[in-house]
């Protein structure tokens, strides 16, 4: 391995270490307490080394959130592909989305800016629309199967997304006084009622 390749590999390793350290700190201390200095201390480098790889903390958060959306997309695809009917597919992807949110709370909070600023200076993440796209496709399939008006698919699927994301957000921000079983039951009932109504 030449000098250039060795330096490139070292640079990539430091970048990975920065992202791993930032995520680990967020899990133990929360996203709000994250700083470039803490990340530098965690990887045992000086702060300028961190700045050599990322412009600022927001750039680090943006990179981590993209990884979160990628992981979510994989889970949604697995859930969707495990079923045959559009109704079962829709239920499965909503359930996978819910499960992902609570198994990966730190990712979800960062991805959607829950209790903190959204990362990436408002830059649109292509991965952001994965769940909404799948909800739309599933809704459209059910509508076509029922012979209903396909023009309603966009509005209806957006309403379902709002309901699901709203329940998760409430649960995450107020989980001390809201039973998790009540919210999951509400979610399941919402999806069943949605399928009947479209």
Explain what you see.
The chain has 198 residues and is mostly helical. The protein has 2 domains: 1-54, Arc Repressor Mutant, subunit A (Orthogonal Bundle), CATH 1.10.10.60; 64-197, Tetracycline Repressor, domain 2. It has helices at 3-29, 36-43, 47-53, 57-81, 86-103, 105-112, 130-146, 153-173, 180-197. InterPro entries: Homeodomain-like_sf, HTH-type_Tx_Regulator, HTH_TetR, MT1864/Rv1816-like_C, Tet_transcr_reg_TetR-rel_C_sf. It holds the Pfam family TetR_N. GO terms for molecular function: DNA binding.
Count of domain modules: 2
> Given the helix and strand composition, which structural class is it?
mainly alpha
Report the count of strand segments. Answer: 0
Describe the sheet with the most strands.
none
Q: Give helix and strand order, one letter per element, not per position.
A: HHHHHHHHH
CATH homologous superfamily of the largest domain? Tetracycline Repressor, domain 2
CATH class of the largest domain: Mainly Alpha
* Cα radius of gyration in angstroms: 20 Å
Helicity, as a percent range: over 70%
Strand content: under 5%
Mean pLDDT: 88
CATH topology annotation of the largest domain:
Tetracycline Repressor, domain 2
Q: How would the global form be characterised? A: elongated
- The CATH level-2 architecture of the largest domain is identified as Orthogonal Bundle
pLDDT under 50 segments (min length 5)?
none
What is the tally of helical segments?
Answer: 9
Compute the separation of the termini in Å: 60 Å
DNA-binding region: 35-54
Protein name: TetR family transcriptional regulator
Pfam family, one: TetR_N
GO molecular function, one term: DNA binding
